[in-house]
Write a structure and sequence with these properties.
This protein has 7 helices and 10 strands. By secondary structure, the protein is of the alpha/beta class. The mean pLDDT is 92. The strands form 2 sheets. Strands 6-7-8-3-9-10 form a 6-stranded mixed β-sheet, with helices on both faces. A 4-stranded antiparallel β-sheet has the order 2-1-4-5, covered by helices on one side. The chain has 2 domains: 159 residues, Rossmann fold; 75 residues, no CATH class. The protein starts with 6 loop residues before the first strand and ends in a 6-residue tail after the last helix. It comes from Acidisoma silvae. Belongs to the ABC transporter superfamily. GO terms for molecular function: ATP binding; ATP hydrolysis activity.
C-alpha cells in the first residue's frame, strides 16, 4: 500500500471496567487498510471485532495506541465514515426516501438536493419502487438496503459494517452479498466488515483478518486472491475452499497457545 493508509490502527488497547472488575478487551491491535481495500474481521464471539469497528466509527473511546483515518486521529463519529449495523436503525415514521434524506440533511446538504441524492442511492440498491414505503412495509433485506443507501448517500471515505447480514435468511444474505460486492466494485471505497460467516468473508473480501481472544488480538491474516467480479459459482471452487479452510483452521486454533 502506497501513500497514507486509509485506516491505520497502531498499538490499540481497550479495557472495560476498572479495578478487579476490569476486562482487557483488546491488546496491541495493529491493522492497516489501504484505499479501496475490502477487509473482513472474523473470530469467535467475544474476541473484540465489534469493539474495533465501534472505535474506528468513533462510537467508543480507547485506552492505548492510535487510530488514524487518512492520517488524522479519530476523535468521534464523522461523515468520512458510514456505519451499517445488524439492526436496521431506520426511523419507523419516515419512508425509505425520507430516511436517506434525513441523513443527507444532517450532513449539511441543501434540502433541494436531498431528494435527488436519496433517489440516486435508492436506485443503487434497487429500491426505486419502494421509495415511499415505510420500514414496516419492507422485508429485512429491503430495510438493510435502505440502511446501506443511507450510509453511502453522503459519500463517506470508508464503510464500516458490523454483521450487517447476520439477521437475514440464507437466500437474502447471498443476494445482499452480491449487491454489496457489486456496489463496491463499481464505486470503490474502503470497507471494514465484521462477520461470523467465514464463507461470506471469503466471498466479499480482499483480505481476512482472524482475531483471537482473552484479550482480543490479531492472530493471522489471509489474502483472498479470487478474481473479481465475484459470483456465487466461485464458492465451490478449489481456490475458494482452500482459503475458507485456512481461515477456519486459524479460528479453531483459538484453544491453542498464541
Amino acid at each position: 500500500m502506497s501513500g497514507v493508509p486509509k485506516l491505520e490502527i497502531t498499538g490499540l488497547g481497550k479495557t472495560f471496567g476498572s479495578g478487579r472488575s476490569a476486562t482487557v478487551a483488546l491488546r496491541d491491535i495493529n491493522l492497516t487498510l489501504g484505499d479501496n481495500e475490502f477487509v473482513s474481521l472474523v473470530g469467535t464471539s467475544g474476541c473484540g471485532k465489534s469493539t474495533i469497528l465501534s472505535i474506528v466509527a468513533g462510537l467508543q473511546d480507547y485506552d492505548d495506541g492510535k487510530v488514524l483515518v487518512d492520517g488524522m486521529p479519530v476523535e468521534g463519529p464523522g461523515l468520512d465514515r458510514g456505519v451499517v449495523f445488524q439492526s436496521y436503525t431506520l426511523l419507523p415514521w419516515l419512508t425509505a426516501r425520507q430516511n436517506v434524506e434525513f441523513a443527507l440533511k444532517a450532513a449539511g446538504h441543501k434540502k433541494r438536493d436531498c431528494r435527488d441524492l436519496a433517489d440516486e442511492h435508492l436506485k443503487l440498491v434497487n429500491l426505486t419502487s419502494f421509495a415511499d414505503s415505510y420500514p414496516s412495509q419492507l422485508s429485512g433485506g429491503m430495510k438493510q438496503r435502505v440502511a446501506i443507501a443511507r450510509a453511502l448517500s453522503y459519500r463517506p471515505k470508508m464503510l464500516l459494517m458490523d454483521e450487517p447480514f447476520g439477521a437475514l435468511d440464507a437466500l437474502t444474505r447471498h443476494q445482499m452479498q452480491e449487491l454489496l460486492t457489486r456496489i463496491w466494485e463499481e464505486h470503490r471505497l474502503t470497507v471494514l466488515f465484521v462477520t461470523h460467516d467465514v464463507e461470506e468473508a471469503v466471498y466479499i473480501s480482499d483480505r481476512i483478518v482472524v482475531m483471537g481472544m482473552s484479550p482480543g488480538y490479531i492472530k493471522q491474516s489471509f489474502d483472498v486472491d479470487l478474481p473479481r467480479p465475484r459470483h456465487q459459482r466461485m464458492i465451490g471452487s478449489d481456490e475458494f475452499v482452500a482459503v475458507q479452510r485456512g481461515v477456519m483452521a486459524a479460528i479453531r486454533g483459538e484453544s491453542e497457545p498464541a
